[in-house]
Amino acid sequence: MLSKRKINKIKLLNNKKNLRLDKFIDLALYDRNGYYLNKKPIGRKFDFVTSPEISQMFGEIIGVYLVYNWKEKINSKFNLIELGPGNGTLFKDIERTAKILPNFFENANVNLIEINNELRKIQEKNLKYFKQSKIRWSKALNFRSKLPSIIYSNEFFDCFPVRQFLNDNNHWFERYVKFNEKENKYYSINKRVISKKILEYLNKNKRQKIYEVSYSRNKYFEQICRYLKKNRGLCILIDYGYNNKIKNFTLQAIYNHKKTSIFENIGQQDISSHVNFNELIEIAKQNKLQINEFISQREFLIKYGILERKKKLLTNNSRLNKNLLNEEVDRLINVDRMGNLFKCLVVSNL
Questions:
Q1: What is residue 45's predicted lDDT score, i.e. its pLDDT?
Q2: Closest CA to 57 of 310, 344, 254, 336
Q3: Which residue of 207, 216, 269, 308 has the lowest C-beta tally within 10 Å?
Q4: Where in 51-184 does DSSP place strands (E)?
Q5: Rg for the chain (alpha carbons), in Å?
């Protein structure tokens, strides 16, 4: 449950005006007692399992991709930045794979962006074998370095708060949150949009009945794009999302691997939304970055060798569980599982 301080903060806002949906999500996730600052969310025992936790092959394919691009297009000192490293599993798999080219990490300034103190402790423990002086942990991106950068993330951009809009008879309405004092619960209401700036933005998408947008997500990605434009580099992000019109809002809450209402278990559960990749691609283009890849996770992993990697693992180690390995790969690339739901976007200035 929310802390007393946080509940009072939400009630206070509701006494004066309705609380915008993204503000509510921000409190539930990023307040000092919020979900992302205190819980250990990743792993089979926790709320969700990410691709790196499913199979080492996921991180190995990412590692090969990063090493190749560094060697061919940078081949000098650079910043290696992971956004939201989770348990450190993806970095660990990338580091192991990068041993095929030892000077990759010899030239890397490693920066792990992590706001969760509990996850940072796990990362430090899991990566203690790696020379700690080579890793710097930060809570936010630092754009002071003028070195070229490789920035990567998996399931990071889905966690930004969103605003939801509904088009009803050519009138736009926005979702807000209210608190019922008598019933001691939250519920949502729709308020008509009157801001000219917001209406101008929404009317670009007036053929859609609903629209979901994360201004904070777009702003964060734009900062990355501006940085890459100025200092060269590459950004690869993998997340669940879409590039077509959506028929339903994508906001969801997960508690112990089960979907719940965003108004339940507040501060104790994950709240996320699908990434609108069209917006990110447009931001990259506005900053004159190249779109190296925009494909499904299935296409990316197959294109860069996951099936060959699976075959090699089975050939070199007869003790491996073939059925388990097949299940891991199927979960990552099957179109009815993670294969099409997750997308891979690579933008660069190299």
A1: 47
A2: 310
A3: 207
A4: 78-83, 108-113, 135-138, 149-154, 163-168, 171-180
A5: 21
Sequence ranges of the domains in the chain: 4-33+163-212, 49-159+215-245+273-349
Token reading at 235: 């950004």
Q: What is the Cα–Cα distance from 255 to 185, expressed in whole angstroms?
A: 18
Q: d(Cα 122, Cα 119) in Å, to the nearest integer?
A: 5
Write the pLDDT tens digit of every residue in 134-154. 899 999 998 889 999 999 999
Distance of CA 137 to CAs 9, 110, 119, 316, 327, Å? 31, 8, 11, 36, 34
For residue 12, give the H/E element and its range.
Answer: helix 4-16
Please choose, from the candidates 298, 331, 326, the residue with its C-alpha nearest in 3D space to the C-alpha of residue 310.
326
Q: What's this model's pTM, rounded to 2 decimal places?
A: 0.91
pLDDT computed for residue 147 by the predictor: 96
Region 49-159+215-245+273-349: CATH code:
3.40.50.12710
Q: Are 51 and 339 in contact (CB under 8 A)?
A: no
Ranges of residues in the chain with a pLDDT under 50 are: 1, 42-46
